[in-house]
Each structure stands twice: as C-alpha cells, then as structure tokens.
Amino acid sequence: SEKEINEDVSIAKQRIKDEIEKLEIMIPSLVEKLIEEGFTLNEINSIPSGKRIKYQLKHTISRYSLKDHREAGFTATQLKESEGTSFPYNPSAINLKEAGFTATQLKEAGFDLDKLMKAGFTASELKVAGFTASELKNGGLTGFTLKELIDAEYSLLELYEADFHVEELKEEGINAKGLRNKGFDLKKLARVGFPAKQLKKAE
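^ thats the sequence. predicted structure below, dont judge the formating
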C-alpha cells in the first residue's frame, strides 16, 4: 500500500542519516591517520570521496598553512568560513593575501574594500577585482590618490566620474583635449592654467 511504501522510504532515509553521522564521527580520525601515513594536504584533498573530508580539515588539521590549503585547492571562501572554529590560522584578508589569494578571490569570499586595502592590495589589483575609481578614491582611511588611479590605468571617464577636480587632473598631466571631450568648458580649462596651444587643439 502507499502507506507501507512511505514507511519504507522513511526507514531508508533514516538509515542514510545514521550512516552519514557515523561517517562524520570517523572523518577526523581518518584524516589524522592519513597525516600519520605521510599524506600531503593536496593528496588528502584529491581523494575521490574526500569532499566531506575537505570540509572537516579546517577543524582537524593544524600542521598545514593557509598557503598549503590554497595549493591543495581550498578557496578563500572556504577558509574564511573557518573563522571562529578550531582552525589554527586566522583567515584574515592580510593572511589570505600572504598565502597567495588574489583581491578578486577575497572579494568573492566576502571581504569588503576596506579590509582589502588594509591587506595591502594595490589599486591595479583592486581594479581587476572590479572596484571603481570612485570606490578606491573614497575607500579606507585615506583612499587612493589620483596618481595611483592613473597608474592603475583607470580611464579619464572613470576618473571624471570619481569627481576629481580639473585642477588635479591637470597636475597629473591630463591634457585639455581629453578634458574637453568629457564636457569641460574651455574657459574653465583656461582659468586653471592650460596653455593656449592645448586649448586651441581642444576646440
């Protein structure tokens, strides 16, 4: 009957749950056994049935660094989620950067711009991670300078949208024609000291 079928399904599901619980209890000792036998973190992580082991590592392994975990295929997100557990390494943005993770990977893991800036990522690295010139100008305690954003190869439009003053752009070598093309008035450009030759070319 349908009732008997449902009961059989429920029993089967419970058996599966019981087996999973037994496996979870066994995993920490299994991992320790593998370590004792000389397995590297990368070898443990590559075990075909090792997905569940992968998530237990942060609770059981204390002899592998964050760099070891990265090289074994762990993501910045996985390591960040280990924060507050018995995992022996602090998965901060600074430490993950030192372990070789990129700004893009840390952004995807949920680290905000302020933490990435404190970790020491450059404007170029943060640009690759998808941050705008405006965000970098206003991020952190002091933000990035106009020169740093120019060196990171943000376009004139992006710098203009970040609300840099025309005087600042001129001081960093932006020419009158480029500013004129972005809508700056010729009289204003003349007032901040652009030479007549440049202004004529910008007409």
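The chain has a mean pLDDT of 75.
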